[in-house]
Predict the 3D structure of the following.
Amino acid sequence: MEKSKKLIFHRGQGLIEVLVSVGIVMLILGGVVPLMLISLASKTKAYERKAMVAAAEKKMEEVINEKQNNQSVFWPRIGTNIPSTDSNYNYVVDYAAHTADGCDDNCVDVSVTVTMQKDPTKTVTFSRFFAKN
């Protein structure tokens, strides 16, 4: 008789332990999932930024190449903006006259601005100073 009372007393305890365990696991997962989503979003932003920087560097290298190899085209561009696009980005290359003492049309500040087409709020800008040799 005493043996059957112990069995009746412990009969529902396994179910309660499972429910408590499931509740604890759900609380832990509820905290981990948002952290994983934030990490993924951060990784995506970093990748996009890296790709934009690479595109801006490539465009600036084109400007440097033009200055070194085709000065008759490079120097007349002072005071102009040259827009261009590709499949992912919009580019604006700005040739601004550098107005420091002693420059007199012999110096230019070139800025390359890259804007993402799918999100125009994301931009990267590189600037570089050039002087005639």
Notes: Residues 2-131 form one domain.
